[in-house]
């Protein structure tokens, strides 16, 4: 069963043929689910964790109907957003878009893309409401109907976004490689894909992949975390940096019986579009100018940068910091300091979210945001 949605009125641009999975997911999120409490597991729900005050303030300004239709498995708010052009993959009812539209500011812009008409109807309904609520002269958010595997067909241009986010949506796509490659294409050089999703402890069986409810609940389409690491680098991204990880407990006996011994986590990764990584490490000093991170910046599960503290970073992180929107937030020095100077060594890092969960005892690394992109 397939249908062709012609988003722009002519095939060849915006024409994408639904797979059976696309049809099932649209039905699940457009018709079956009416509110968050309709979910049959907790995989698509954000884990309980402290939320910075300024993000809570932004969330409180969002219309209740938009919030009621929100489904997500993490708090997807990268740092340094002011003035940025941002894309939300699978924006749903628009909750994250409206939150982030406040954080990028009136000179920034947020685009949400979603394939589900019912969700987009809710999101678009409140554009004018939120423009007035935020005190903006004109909207800085728009919503596009399309597929996260077909950003070009949806009219999104190459090298046009500073940051892409996604909140528990990539798992719903039947073609993860295409999602990542299209995201890479529309990101500017130095741009970042910062996203939260559900990952499995091993490759899933066909029985689970073909289970409609499990797919709709963000479990049947979950990637084995090792496949994410491989696919990300194959399409051109830097090696994934693991930010957070939390155990997913299904809490549904019927679904647990089908899942058997498979384990799941929700995890947030950051992937960067940067030049070839240098083998040379560096000493970096964080200047503390990012709003919300005036004293320290928790970049990922391995690196925390305190103001004026000299930190030794490897070639991978040095390349990311120096070629991204974070470049002006750090002072870079070659390895080697005069005797007596203190240098902080990083923790041992991991990209395995199941390992991180064990290390942290299910604790998480929080994230907030501040201004870095600048006006265009």
UniProtKB/TrEMBL annotation:
GO biological process: arsonoacetate metabolic process; toxin metabolic process
GO molecular function: arsenite methyltransferase activity
Domain Methyltransferase: 82-236
Highest taxon of source: Eukaryota
Reaction(s) catalysed by this chain's protein: arsenic triglutathione + 2 [thioredoxin]-dithiol + 2 S-adenosyl-L-methionine + H2O = dimethylarsinous acid + 2 [thioredoxin]-disulfide + 3 glutathione + 2 S-adenosyl-L-homocysteine + 2 H(+); arsenic triglutathione + [thioredoxin]-dithiol + S-adenosyl-L-methionine + 2 H2O = methylarsonous acid + [thioredoxin]-disulfide + 3 glutathione + S-adenosyl-L-homocysteine + H(+); arsenic triglutathione + 3 [thioredoxin]-dithiol + 3 S-adenosyl-L-methionine = trimethylarsine + 3 [thioredoxin]-disulfide + 3 glutathione + 3 S-adenosyl-L-homocysteine + 3 H(+)
SUPFAM superfamilies registered for this protein in UniProt: S-adenosyl-L-methionine-dependent methyltransferases (SSF53335)
A GO cellular-component term linked to this record: cytosol
EC number, UniProt record: 2.1.1.137
Protein family according to the UniProt entry: Belongs to the methyltransferase superfamily. Arsenite methyltransferase family.
PANTHER family reported in the protein's UniProt record: ARSENITE METHYLTRANSFERASE
Descriptive protein name: Arsenite methyltransferase
Species, as recorded: Salmo trutta
């Amino acid at each position: 069963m397939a249908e062709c949605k012609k988003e722009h009125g002519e095939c060849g641009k915006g024409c994408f043929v639904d797979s059976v999975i696309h049809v099932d997911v649209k039905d699940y999120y457009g018709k079956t689910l009416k509110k968050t409490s309709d979910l049959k597991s907790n995989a698509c729900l954000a884990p309980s964790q402290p939320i910075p005050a300024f993000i809570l303030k932004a969330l409180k300004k969002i219309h209740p109907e938009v919030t009621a239709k929100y489904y997500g498995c993490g708090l997807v708010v990268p740092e340094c957003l002011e003035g940025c052009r941002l894309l939300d993959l699978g924006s749903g009812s628009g909750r994250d878009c409206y939150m982030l539209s406040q954080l990028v500011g009136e000179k920034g812009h947020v685009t949400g893309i979603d394939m589900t008409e019912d969700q987009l109807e809710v999101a678009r309904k409140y554009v004018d409401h939120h423009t007035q609520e935020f005190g903006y002269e004109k909207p800085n958010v728009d919503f596009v109907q399309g597929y996260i595997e077909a950003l070009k067909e949806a009219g999104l241009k190459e090298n046009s976004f500073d940051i892409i986010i996604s909140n528990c949506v990539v798992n719903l796509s039947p073609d993860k490689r295409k999602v990542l490659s299209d995201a890479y294409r529309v990101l500017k050089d130095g741009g970042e894909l910062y996203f939260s999703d559900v990952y499995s402890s091993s490759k899933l069986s066909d029985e689970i992949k073909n289970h409609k409810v499990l797919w709709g609940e963000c479990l049947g389409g979950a990637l084995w975390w090792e496949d994410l690491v491989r696919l990300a680098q194959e399409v051109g991204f830097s090696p994934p940096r693991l930010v957070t990880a939390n155990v997913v407990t299904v809490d549904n006996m019927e679904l647990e019986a089908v899942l058997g011994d498979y384990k799941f986590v929700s995890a947030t990764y950051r992937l960067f579009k940067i030049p070839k990584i240098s083998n040379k490490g560096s000493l970096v000093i964080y200047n503390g100018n990012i709003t919300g991170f005036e004293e320290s910046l928790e970049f990922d599960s391995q690196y925390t940068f305190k103001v004026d503290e000299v930190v030794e970073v490897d070639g991978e992180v040095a390349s990311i910091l120096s070629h991204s929107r974070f470049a002006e937030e750090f002072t870079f020095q070659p390895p080697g300091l005069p005797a007596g100077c203190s240098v902080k060594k990083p923790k041992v890092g991991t990209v395995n979210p199941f390992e991180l969960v064990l290390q942290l005892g299910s604790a998480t690394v929080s994230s907030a945001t501040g201004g870095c992109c600048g006006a265009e």
